[in-house]
Amino acid sequence: MSKFWSPFVKDLVPYVPGEQPKLTRLVKLNTNENPYGPSPKALEAMRAQLDDGLRLYPDPSGDQLRQAVADFYQVPSSHVFVGNGSDEVLAHAFHGLFQHGRPLLFPDISYSFYPVYCGLYGIPFEPIALDESFQIRIEDYDRPNGGIIFPNPNAPTGCLLPLEAIERLLQAHPDSVVLVDEAYIDFGGQTAVALVQRYPNLLVTQTLSKSRSLAGLRVGLAIGQPELIEALERIKNSFNSYPLDRVAIAGAAAAFADREYFQQTCTRVIESRELLVERMQALGFEVLPSAANFIFARHPQRDAAALAGALREQGIIVRHFKQPRIAQFLRITIGAPEQNQALLDALGSIL
Ligand code: PMP
């Protein structure tokens, strides 16, 4: 530890993101990016900002994007918050909505940034075990808490919790914020945004990194009643009064407006997923039911770490987690058809 560090930095355990290799020849199926690229209309809107916008500060309210999201979901723009990737939006939510001294509840197998934010903001937490089929069981959340958070579909399992279960959870915990992290909702799930008007304790977060293929732009958002949105605004304005740069606001707004491209590319990913699941099963893999742009699969006779290593030798990267209960699984992003085929060919030669 350096003498220049604040004492709390010594104990911070930061999040370790999936590998971003420098080599472009690799088939990169490890961080759930979208193979199809952003909407051409989003690219055009961003180019216009490069030509004529960067001299000026962005709009501190991000109104153009908030309105585009509000139009898409048919909610008032006062219900929308935008930030630099949903990671940042989540950080503000932990900071502003979960600091109550009671434990935050989340699944024991889930997005590994949650315990990191708890460490950063000193929030006690209690991981709740998934059931034997790797599903979230809402009855297990029936205990005192300072909030509840889970991804839907869950990551890295890909499993979806139906909207009726989310509604029951909201009703059972009227005094807690329930945050539904919908990073992957557009690949087959039903969004909880439909419940926001009825439940003041619901906050839904989403990202443009997956279904809108803008991971490099860093844009995320939250939708909830103004009482929750105001907490996020207060926190954000205490760090940086500009939520997003001008390129990001214009590109993300155009991406939300281009529904046709969004629907077409999501459909292609979903179709590829169904095909990949079938082929992986034919190779002997067990695959959890996925509503995301990735699958979570294990081979009953093969060690997952060894498989990941062998795939890597053939230039294909997938994600492997060391957590004991899931150490025999591989998380594999749905790529373009030729990437998925390269994966299947490689597995065929390894098995
Ligand atoms: N939530 C979940 C469940 C995720 O898997 C991710 C992506 N790693 C994020 C949030 C964050 O996405 P981003 O910061 O790119 O919006």
From TrEMBL:
<keyword id="KW-0663">Pyridoxal phosphate</keyword>
<keyword id="KW-0368">Histidine biosynthesis</keyword>
<comment type="subunit">
    <text>Homodimer.</text>
</comment>
<feature type="modified residue" description="N6-(pyridoxal phosphate)lysine">
    <location>
        <position position="210"/>
    </location>
</feature>
<dbReference type="Pfam" id="PF00155">
    <property type="entry name" value="Aminotran_1_2"/>
</dbReference>
<comment type="similarity">
    <text>Belongs to the class-II pyridoxal-phosphate-dependent aminotransferase family. Histidinol-phosphate aminotransferase subfamily.</text>
</comment>
<dbReference type="InterPro" id="IPR005861">
    <property type="entry name" value="HisP_aminotrans"/>
</dbReference>
<keyword id="KW-0032">Aminotransferase</keyword>
<protein>
    <recommendedName>
        <fullName>Histidinol-phosphate aminotransferase</fullName>
        <ecNumber>2.6.1.9</ecNumber>
    </recommendedName>
</protein>
<dbReference type="InterPro" id="IPR015424">
    <property type="entry name" value="PyrdxlP-dep_Trfase"/>
</dbReference>
<comment type="pathway">
    <text>Amino-acid biosynthesis; L-histidine biosynthesis; L-histidine from 5-phospho-alpha-D-ribose 1-diphosphate: step 7/9.</text>
</comment>
<keyword id="KW-0808">Transferase</keyword>
<dbReference type="InterPro" id="IPR050106">
    <property type="entry name" value="HistidinolP_aminotransfase"/>
</dbReference>
<keyword id="KW-0028">Amino-acid biosynthesis</keyword>
<feature type="domain" description="Aminotransferase class I/classII large">
    <location>
        <begin position="26"/>
        <end position="347"/>
    </location>
</feature>
<dbReference type="InterPro" id="IPR001917">
    <property type="entry name" value="Aminotrans_II_pyridoxalP_BS"/>
</dbReference>
<dbReference type="InterPro" id="IPR004839">
    <property type="entry name" value="Aminotransferase_I/II_large"/>
</dbReference>
<dbReference type="InterPro" id="IPR015422">
    <property type="entry name" value="PyrdxlP-dep_Trfase_small"/>
</dbReference>
<dbReference type="InterPro" id="IPR015421">
    <property type="entry name" value="PyrdxlP-dep_Trfase_major"/>
</dbReference>
<dbReference type="GO" id="GO:0004400">
    <property type="term" value="F:histidinol-phosphate transaminase activity"/>
</dbReference>
